[in-house]
Write a structure and sequence with these properties.
The chain is an alpha+beta fold. It has one domain (about 30-235): outer membrane lipoprotein receptor (LolB), chain A, CATH 2.50.20.20. Helix content is about 20%, strand content about 45%. The radius of gyration is 22 Å and the shape is globular.
């Protein structure tokens, strides 16, 4: 009996050790997956996507917007074309000399010449329902620090298929921080789905606190392409007269 007991303990110890080895060899942490995604976008020569933003608020209200992104690193080109439910439109585009924005509501074009071009993206959060501060900050990580994936306290939450693509699901916290005081505001739960094969982002959900029985949830869905061949027409935009 004593020998059998010792044998069982040895087998259990070996099993636990094997599991630990397999986990270290094949498993990945939330931090490592997020970093791999940051590196993937930061190293892309070109990128394109189409997507949807679903904003749920109040007891049952829902807005649905669409967007597309085209990007080329050298020579520099970017086009983020955001279409808001109801007919409004907001566009960010870049060429080697400057970044530009145009808002249908005002009909105004704003130009941001080099090197002070970052506000074209950083000031476009509201008009683009957050899309400007997501993928573009990953593509221009040196300027923006990959803001989309600055997720605090990230944890792995299993895997899930999104439109046939197997994804890591990572849960954490996002917030905005006042530079002067370090105070966190707009704190919200964040869940991101990252493709296990390509490390491209397929989905992101941000959920802030809301009164009982109400929602404050934004879901952004992506159909991304890494390093596609894009012609000049992919980046052309002329504000309507």
């Amino acid at each position: 009996m004593r020998t059998a007991s010792m044998f069982q303990k040895i087998v259990s110890a070996l099993a636990i050790s094997s599991l630990g080895f397999l986990s270290a060899a094949h498993g990945q942490t939330a931090d490592s997956v997020l970093q791999k995604a940051r590196d993937t976008y930061g190293q892309m020569k070109s990128y394109a996507d189409t997507g949807v933003v679903l904003y749920e608020y109040g007891t049952s209200s829902e807005d649905k917007h669409t967007f597309s992104t085209a990007f080329n690193r050298s020579p520099r080109h970017l086009l983020l074309d955001f279409h808001k439910q109801g007919g409004d439109r907001y566009v960010i585009w870049a060429d080697p000399d400057a970044f530009h924005t145009w808002w249908k509501t005002t009909g105004q074009q704003t130009d941001y010449a080099n090197p002070n071009n970052a506000p074209a993206i950083s000031l476009s959060d509201l008009n683009s329902q957050g899309t400007a501060l997501k993928i573009p900050t990953l593509l221009y990580a040196k300027a923006f620090g990959a803001a989309m994936l600055k997720i605090a306290d990230p944890t792995m939450d299993g895997t899930e298929d999104i439109e046939g693509h197997h994804c890591h699901r990572i849960v954490g916290r996002l917030s905005d921080v006042y530079t002067a005081t370090g105070k966190e505001v707009n704190i919200r739960k964040a869940t991101v789905w990252i493709d296990t094969a390509s490390f491209l982002i397929r989905k992101m959900v941000e959920e802030a606190k809301a009164p009982s029985g109400q929602h404050n949830r934004k879901t952004t869905l992506y159909d991304p392409r890494a390093n596609p061949t894009l012609d000049n027409a992919s980046f052309k935009f002329a504000p309507p007269e």
